[in-house]
Amino acid sequence: MIQQKRWATGLLEILFSTRNPFLATLFGKLEFRQCLAYLWLLVWGLRSIPELCYAALPAYCIITNSHFLPQVHEPAIFIHVTLFVIYNLYTVSEYIRTGLSIRAWWNNNRMWRVTSMTAWLFGVLSVIPKLLGLSEMVFEVTQKDQTTTSDDSNANAGRFTFNESPIFVPGITILLVNLTALATGLLGFRPASHGGDGSAGIGEFICSVWVVLCFWAFLKGLFGKGKYGIPSSTICKSGVLALLFVHFCKWTSRS
Fold first, then answer.
1. pTM of the predicted structure, to 2 decimals
2. How many folded domains does the chain comprise?
3. Each residue of 222-239: pLDDT tens digit?
4. Residue 188 falls inside a structural domain
5. In this structure, what DSSP letter does residue 142 have?
6. Is there a domain that residue 236 lies in?
7. How far is C-alpha 231 from the chain's CA centre?
8. Stronger pLDDT, 190 or 92, i.e. the higher one
9. Which three-class secondary structure state does DSSP give residue 138?
10. What is the distance between the alpha carbons of residues 141 and 151, in angstroms, rounded to a whole number?
11. How far, in Å, CA of 121 to CA of 191, rounded?
12. What mean pLDDT value characterizes the chain?
């Protein structure tokens, strides 16, 4: 996570520096297609903001009993379903053609979601003060895990390890928010729909379940122990943020 944060911070520093691809294309010898290729890499960190918003959107719709996807009875729902299925089938086929498994595809797909909403988000937050001249970048030392005989067992192979770093807070918050939304919807605690716009449908529930599956390692960490468990202080911070989000949803549904 720390390494991903470093990469996001470094790429954003280049993007907002005097050596960015825009200026190199306008006043240098960088070609337009090369500029687009560099920009595709440099804006990785900025993806964290829309990723975070879209991960919270299904939960918001379920809690407020609204929707952002077409209803099941509307023909437009097939457009979203088709795009979702085609994209995932295409990416799975790419992995299979290169000799990788479907499990590898799923693990990498989950890690893209986790990394973008945790490490990349903190990369954006850490580069803003430097751009404003409020602070200087400090090199963060990555803590190395000390392996033991028990750690080498197959049961713990590939498991997430957690610590009290705030970098885990956004991911746990998103997980708690979506779990709360699913519980709210399944138990029937949603407010009555109004305005004739319809209520949250199956599309919002599927999206919320998808987010929970992407953060499944964090869900296991809530019940884990030792370095495989999320510290209680981190859970408390995330819980407070999740409660604030739920309160915000309730407030918007009443207004």
1. 0.86
2. 1
3. 998 888 899 999 999 999
4. yes
5. P
6. yes
7. 20
8. 92
9. coil
10. 22
11. 32
12. 87
